[in-house]
Structures are given as structure tokens and as C-alpha cells.
Amino acid sequence: MQAFAQDDSLLQGLVSNDKGIDTLSLSRLALSVEPYAVMVRKGDTALLAAVDRSLSQLYASGEINALYDKWFNTHTLTIKMGRLTRDSFVRPNKQPGVAMVLGHSI
Fold it and tell me: What is the mean pLDDT of residues 65-90?
């Protein structure tokens, strides 16, 4: 196989413990931008408010970075935080299409 397209974090996870990692490289070109989200039942404003409040606190306090490291930088998995993830932690936004506005599309 010459190339394989996938979410950058998943690709980094696949090769994080691979002895052949030195023979692989990750393209800097983003083929698409697909933000992650939390879905709640339509009309469940209390749960949505709790999720939004919790995420706002994680982002504002910087605790989100420690959580990222806890799950993605371990002794068995090393996934470097990408530009899009880092930017979304600094400037979280609920609006659709914000990634395009920030210039994260091809």
C-alpha cells in the first residue's frame, strides 16, 4: 500500500507503537474537516446546558490538555495533538461551519 486516508488521530494511533514508523509520514493536507460533537435528545435543554457548561470549564481552565494527554499520550499510545485539535481547544465553537471560517478546509 502506498497511501491510506483516515482521521489523522486514528492514523497516528495505528503507527504509535509500530517499529516501521520511521518509514511513514503524515500529509499536512486536510482532506476534510469533521468536528466532533456531543448529541443529546432533542428538547433536553437541561442536559445540553450541563454538557456545554462542563466543556466550557474544561476549555477555559486548560484541563482539556491534561485530559488529552491522559488518553492520547500514554506508554502504549502516542498521538501528537494536531493543529485542528489544538485550535478547537483554544477557540471552541458550537456553530456549524466554523472550521471553514478558521481556514481549516481545502
Answer: 87
Using DSSP, state whether 71 is helix, strand or coil.
Answer: helix
Question: CB under 8 Å to 100, separation ≥6 — which residues?
Answer: 33
What is the spatial distance between Cα 17 and Cα 75, in angstroms, rounded to a whole number?
9
Q: Nine-digit cell at 13?
A: 494511533
pLDDT of residue 49 exceeding 60: yes
Torsion of CA 14, 106, 82, 71, to 10 degrees: -50
Q: Cell triple for residue 35?
A: 468536528
Q: What's phi and psi for 2, nearest 5 deg?
A: -95, -35
The backbone torsions φ and ψ at residue 73, rounded to the nearest 5 degrees and listed phi first, read -130, 80
Residue 73, strand partner residues? 78
Reply yes or no on whether the pLDDT at 94 is more than 80. no
C-alpha cell of 34? 469533521
**pLDDT of 61 over the 90 cut:** yes
3-class SS of residue 33: coil
Comparing CA positions, the residue from 16, 9, 4, 13 lying closest to residue 83 is 9
